[in-house]
Amino acid sequence: MVSDDLDALHSKFPACETLAFADLSTNMILVTNTKSPQKREALDTLCAEAALTLGPADTPAIGDTTSDAAFIATKDQIKIFLRAENEPSDVLCCICAPDLDIPAFLSEARPCLQKISGGG
Questions:
Q1: Which of 74, 88, 102, 118 has the fewest Cβ atoms within 10 angstroms?
Q2: Mean pLDDT, 10 residues at a time, over the chain (120 residues)?
Q3: Rounded to the nearest 10 degrees, what angle do helices 102-117 and 2-12 cross at?
Q4: How much is the pTM?
Q5: How deeply is 65 buried, as exposed, middle or buried, from its count of CB atoms within 10 A (0-12, 13-18, 19+)?
Q6: Can you tell me the distance from the alpha carbon of 85 to that of 97, in angstroms, rounded to the nearest whole number?
């Protein structure tokens, strides 16, 4: 199940405060795993940020090609948006503490997204 996969990813990376699986074709967060409850409005904003930074599945947000990842960093947090390879409307949205080991996280988060996006 998607929630089990997000739970497993979260347990490996406690610096991730919120993990959310979203469908950009409907602009909806479908499943979340979060340390503290998120209001619906905050989740809607997170999904909108993913749509803005990644762009539509078939149109680049910036440049000539679509991106499979986008990052927004401040001194207090890092937001990471990953697009699924085979289902470009499926996105993993992450709100993380700035001390996150990003390379290690990405090496686990990408396969997790592929798994939940493919329904496996």
A1: 74
A2: 92 95 93 86 93 78 76 96 93 97 98 87
A3: 170
A4: 0.91
A5: exposed
A6: 26
> Rounded to the nearest 5 degrees, what angle is found at the Cα of 78, between the Cα atoms of 72 and 79?
60
Ranges assigned E (strand) in 61-120 = 69-73, 78-83, 90-96
Strands 16-23 and 90-96: antiparallel
CA–CA gap between residue 107 and residue 80 (Å, rounded): 13
Q: Which amino acid is at 115?
A: K
CA–CA–CA angle 91, 53, 67 (5° rounding): 70
**Euclidean distance between CA atoms 90 and 24, whole angstroms:** 6
**CATH code that applies to domain 2-117:** 3.30.450.30
Q: What share of the chain is helix, strand, coil (3-state, %, to 5)?
A: 35, 30, 40
Residues contacting residue 35 through CB under 8 Å, at least 6 positions apart: 17, 18
